[in-house]
Specification:
mainly alpha, two-stranded antiparallel ribbon, 2 strands, transmembrane, transmembrane helix
Length: 96
Amino acid sequence: MVRGSDILIALIIILFPPAGVAILTGCSCDLLIAIGLTILGYLPGHLYGFYILWKKMRAEELYGDHGYVYLGNGEFVPRDELPPQLQQPYYGSTAA
């Protein structure tokens, strides 16, 4: 189902595709891809922006509002199926 916020983001993508991608994904590699595609041509930037918006709308339909997490590269997963996080090393500590 299309929401009002999706329409607003679509209008932002029409005006400046990297801004819409930044709203959806934050500062990620997807933003750099959108900037690069927009520099190469305005149409490729639009297509990529609408692709990311479509993936978000599809994730909302499948997992519900706020029931998903964005992993990058257009991949949304349900919150309960997050991949395990690796534990950070203990820098400066002597305990194992």
